[in-house]
Amino acid sequence: MHGDLKIISGSANTQLSEAICEHLGCKLSPVLRETFSDGEIRIEIGENVRGDDVFVVQPTSSPVNFHLMELCLMLDALKRASASRVTAVVPYYGYARQDRKVVPRAPISAKMVADILSVAGMQRLVTIDLHAGQIQGFFNCPVDNLFAAPVLLEELRHRDDDMVIISPDAGGVERARAYAKRLGASLAIVDKRRDAPNQAQAMHIIGDVKDKVAVVIDDMIDTAGTMCAAANVIMDNGASDVIACATHPVLSGPAIQRLQDSAFSQVVVSDTIQLDETKKQCDKIMQVSTASLLAKAINNVHTESSVSVLFI
């Protein structure tokens, strides 16, 4: 046992932090977060944490570098305040898509961020749906990579429609198959190919979607270009309806307008990233909470119980 349980929140997703505390029956520990006129961040932990088991909730979402720096400063402050153990709860792990060298003389950014967090004082990581599971190997500390499937599946299970789960690319087939198995649904794949450089991608559906409700599953929605194009092809192939389902609502650039204008009737996402008021105005977006999942993980880590019971 590592002393009393303390939850500290960064500024990236205070709503999720408060919901986690509500599930755990505790209050957020006070922390002073200020930004100086030159852009530097000031952090001060507002109570004694000596010998305590501290969990810092901070997704590294946009603005990524600001939230990452804020997280590092909180970790360092806790380390210097003699916390017994410091766990970073990072529901959305930024830089995860830069997990390998795809061109010469490029960094492996996901590994570098892992090293930065470890040096800052992180002794354990709790995250949700890493873009690539092997990123866990970049850390020299325990990593609990939770799956948002339980909370997303709850939103899909109550539908009585004949459903088909669709992977938007070959890399997401394993994820889509897991959803299809638990929903008792069929599986289809979007096949994308370019006939020549700088030409638009041709999309084909492998599988039967005719007269079915198609659910496109992915780990994140960023600019939503490929996903919205896939929705049009799915509808052209005779689907009765098409729904998007993703863990991380990055929603950068033209994503909101694209989703609003798309063939999707609904876009189901989790709250690993806090949506601003502009994004909430998109009436197609439905956000489901991961607070109970993260609260269970935090409780099990704190009590030295099994975290693997939360994996599906």
UniProtKB/TrEMBL annotation:
Q: Where in the cell is it found?
A: Cytoplasm
Q: What is its main location?
A: cytoplasm
Q: Does the keyword ATP-binding apply?
A: yes
Which SMART domains does UniProt cross-reference here? Pribosyltran_N
Q: Which residues are involved in binding D-ribose 5-phosphate?
A: 194, 218, 222-226
Kindly list the cofactors needed: Mg(2+)
Q: How does it assemble?
A: Homohexamer.
UniProt xrefs under SUPFAM superfamilies: PRTase-like
One of the GO biological process terms: 5-phosphoribose 1-diphosphate biosynthetic process
Q: Which domain of life is it from?
A: Bacteria
- Looking at the record, the residues that make up the Ribose-phosphate pyrophosphokinase N-terminal domain are 5-121
Q: Example GO molecular function term?
A: magnesium ion binding
**UniProt-listed Pfam families:** Pribosyl_synth, Pribosyltran_N
Q: How is the cofactor bound?
A: Binds 2 Mg(2+) ions per subunit.
EC number, UniProt record:
2.7.6.1
For the ligand (Mg(2+)), the binding residues are 131, 169
Group of enzyme by EC: transferase
> What's this protein's name?
Ribose-phosphate pyrophosphokinase
In the record, the note on similarity to other proteins reads: Belongs to the ribose-phosphate pyrophosphokinase family. Class I subfamily.
